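Reopening this one. Same input as before:
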Amino acid sequence: MPRQQVEEPFKINQKITAREVRLVGDNVEQGVYPTDQARKMAQDQNLDLVEISPTAVPPVCRVIDYSKFKYEQKKKTRELKAKQTKVVLKEIRFGPNTDDHDFDFKLKHAQEFLKEGAKIKAYVHFVGRSIVFKERGEILLLKFAQALEELAKVEQLPKLEGKRMFLYLAPKAAVVVKAAPKPVAAPDKDKAAKAPKDAKPAQEPAAATE
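Same output, byte for byte:
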């Protein structure tokens, strides 16, 4: 079965059809050249003529090692994807008459979510005529935010939207950082504790000889 040919993202060398191109880069004298001359300049350096901006007039090209150029492009793409961390948003729902047991249960879940780096969208849902207890809902959400103040910062204070009052919390940066140094610091403490004990035998004989 014939292998399917992968289409290159850039036109290179003979595939560049423009009559003239604008050369840019460090290894050429920048300017506008007939395409054949630009190709010859690339060949003389054992490099490729690569069209990097086909919509420009004339198209913009670089004289570069195309294989190396593609590798660098893929590397940049991977780095951008790695930086684009997905923000997870966890929802926690309350009623205006949530009891202490249910509150504590949901509080523990929120603590776990924040430690994992997730944001929290907590809300009180008012059913029917319970909307008259909106002050009670606000107090409940503020109590929730206060209980999490060591782990979270408030992004939006309680706000009523329709039949729901929302509170948004985000994890504090220190929540993730706190645990990181501990494994490294422990061996250093052990070494510091052992140092005086190990040093004593060496000092005592020295004092005796004097």
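So the earlier flakiness isn't reproducible anymore. For the record, The beta strands are 11-12, 20-24, 31-34, 48-53, 60-64, 89-94, 119-125, 152-161, 164-171.
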